[in-house]
Amino acid sequence: MSIKGIDVSPHQGAIDWKKVKQSGIQFAIIRSGYGDVLSSPGQIDKRFHTNMKQAIANGIPVGVYHFSYAGTEKAARREAEGVVALIREYSLTYPVYFDYEYDSDRLAGKLSKTQLTNVAISFMDTIQKAGYQAGVYTNLDFVRNRYDMPRLKKYELGLAHYGTDQPGVECGLHQTSESGIVPGISGKVDLDIDRKGYIGSMPLSLDTSEYVFKEVGQVYQFLARGTEKPEVSSSNPDIVSVKFNGQDSRGYLYEIKALKPGLSTITAKTSTKTAGFRASLGCQLDTHGVYKCRVGQQYTFLCRSVKAPNINVADIHMVTVNYAGRDSRGHLFTLKAKNLGQTEITASLGDFKDSFMVEVSQ
Question: Is the pTM higher than 0.70?
Answer without folding.
Answer: no
